[in-house]
Design goal:
Blueprint: H1 3-22, E1 27-30, H2 49-70, E2 74-78, E3 83-89, H3 91-98, H4 110-120, H5 123-142
Antiparallel strand pairs: 1-3, 2-3
Helix pairs in contact: 1-2, 1-4, 1-5, 3-5, 4-5
Length: 143
């Protein structure tokens, strides 16, 4: 699995876990939550390998939020520098997170499975949970 895809899965799981756990209250996510905050001396070391890696990480964070928004899973605002605000689930994502898939045992919601995956922290478990969640979202639209 590519590094960016692994980061996307981790970030997506963390976003959904927080939103599901706090629904219906909109949430704020700082870049710091994803280890992507700009340090105070950012411009002093702009061309360093560390800052290049940080910019790449920030691009993945931005891409994750954009993807989830463009595909109808979340709504949000951003200041483009430090955080994403008023992040909330859409009706589509709420329907998906409320599902209890038979293929996964049928006794736990997808939202609870996402929270469990984030707590466990295993990239494989997180990737599986995110894949199941996004697949359910696609199936919801096409059915």
């Amino acid at each position: 699995m590519s590094k960016n895809l692994e980061l996307f899965n981790q970030q997506t799981a963390e976003i959904f876990a927080v939103l599901w756990d706090n629904f219906p209250v909109p949430q704020a996510f700082s870049y710091a939550k994803f280890n992507a905050a700009l340090p105070d001396d950012y411009f002093d070391q702009l061309n360093s390998p560390e800052m290049k890696a940080l910019r790449e990480l920030r691009s993945v964070v931005e891409g994750t939020f954009t993807f989830l928004n463009e595909n109808g899973y979340i709504l949000y605002g951003t200041d483009y520098q430090t955080y994403f605000h008023d992040v909330r689930l859409t009706e589509k994502s709420l329907a998906v997170l409320n599902k209890k898939p038979e293929a996964l045992g049928g006794n736990e919601t997808m939202g609870d499975k996402i929270i469990s995956a984030v707590k466990e922290g295993s990239p494989g478990v997180i990737a599986g949970a995110v894949t199941n969640l996004l697949t359910l979202g696609v199936n919801l639209i096409t059915s």
